[in-house]
Amino acid sequence: MKKRTVIGLLIAALVVSAIAVRFFRRPESSGPSPDEMVKVLLEYDQNGDGQLRTDEVPERMQGIFARGDANQDGTLTRDELRKLAEADSEAVRRKERGERR
Question: How far apart are CA 64 and CA 45, in angstroms?
Answer without folding.
Answer: 14
